[in-house]
Amino acid sequence: MKTEKFFKYIIISFIVGLVVVSYAYGARIKDITSIGGVRDNQLYGYGLVIGLDGTGDSVKNGFTDQTLANMLTRQGLAMKNKTRSLKADNVAAVMITAKLPPFAKIGTKIDVMISSIGDADSLLGGTLPMTPLVGADGKVYASAQGPLVIGGFSAGGSSARATKNHTTVGRIANGGSVERELKYDFDKKREFTINLYHPDFTTCERMAGVIRSQVSDINAELIDSSSITVHIKDSFNKNIVNLISTIENLDVPVDSVAVVVMNEKTGTIVMGANVRISTVAVAHGNLSIQVREDRQVSQPLPFAPAPPAGSSPAEIGKGITIAPGGQTVITTETSVGVSEEKKKLMVVPNGVTIQEVVGALNAIGVSSRDLIDILQTIKAAGALQADLKII
Q1: pLDDT for the residue numbered 270
Q2: Could you tell me the maximum CA-CA distance found in the chain, to the nearest angstrom?
Q3: Contact 281, 348 (CB under 8 A)
Q4: Do 254 and 32 meet the contact criterion of CB atoms below 8 Å apart?
Q5: Tens digit of pLDDT for each residue in 141-183?
Q6: Is the torsion defined by CA of 357, 358, 364, 366 positive or negative?
Q7: How many C-beta atoms surround the C-beta of residue 194 within 10 A?
Q8: Long-range contact list for 376-384, CB < 8 A, 24+ apart?
């Protein structure tokens, strides 16, 4: 009896261990979700890139000259009514874009992207003077300045040109400086929302269950397939930042819909773990048609006699050509060959796992491009229990 109890205990412990292991090895909440309200903010600005080696904007677009005149006017130079005399080709008008990360403080460095909006040939060697960056509300949140890094080159003459990468777009690493902070009142909040990147009812329900079981003094309420609201109870006496750190490091088993993604351009096929195929018979063979044309020259012998009276100008038979007056005649001989690959009808069994599905389809011996046609046909027959996406 003791031995039986011992074995029962071992079996139960083994099953519990499997459940715990399968439940623990999931994705972290921080990798599949975002906290509501915590996001990047887009910044943009307009300015000039100076110091170019004759590759800047031409005089065709008036906004570059006007911008240069305005900048010089702000520096104390009287440039009114003198825009026609500005013909500097070492200046280019650009747009500057950047992302303001959440909780960024004044003085935080950010990367900025510079893109030409005129007809400049290259921004190589250019420098961006101090340019304000504004947000969607029109307020200045950062400023950008510094030398551009292009990562390529462009050189050439009137009839040839060599180019590497894109030379009209540059980047300044840590070229932006935050000048205004966005306020986040996290310490005063008694609830916050967790949003899934990919909405799914099953994953959302599992995540709420994990949060309830692992964190005390809170309540996780399901809103929809994408969001969970975490309510903080009055008995909670910790910092909300510590609470979010604890929650986002919990592991959750992620569920997903069955989907097959196919790229017809490259022949790439990606199947999800939940793809299933019902029992179906598949036969696939390739039909090849080869058309070959050979040109044959009929060269008459020296002093060849003229053809007998009443014969046609050109008589072709059994590869022999008779031309009037001993002329050279070129004929075309066409041969057509048809070959069809003989494939047997094969039954693909009901696949329970992705390994069985792939193994059954590979047994047919087809390439990835042929497999795209087969999967489309299986989907049309209603035997593919998955969403089929072609990109």
Answers
A1: 86
A2: 120
A3: yes
A4: yes
A5: 999 999 999 877 666 666 666 677 788 899 999 999 999 998 8
A6: positive
A7: 25
A8: 377/282, 378/277, 378/280, 378/282, 381/280, 382/278, 383/277, 383/278, 383/279, 383/280, 384/260, 384/275, 384/276, 384/277, 384/278
Radius of gyration of the chain (CA): 37
Cβ proximity of 155 and 162 under 8 Å: yes
Tell me how far apart the alpha carbons of residues 68 and 63 are, in angstroms, rounded to a whole number.
Answer: 8
Angle at 23 between CA 21 and CA 26, to 5 degrees: 100
Q: Which two tokens stand for residue 340?
A: 């069809």
Among 187-196, 198-207, 319-328, the least confident range: 319-328
- The Cα 186–Cα 183 span in angstroms is 9
For residue 183, give Cα distances in angstroms to 28, 37, 38, 104, 127: 27, 11, 11, 10, 32
How buried is 103 (Cβ within 10 angstroms: 0-12 exposed, 13-18 middle, 19+ buried)? exposed
Higher pLDDT, 115 or 121: 115
Token pair recorded at residue 186? 């996290």
**What token pair was written down for 26?**
């999931």
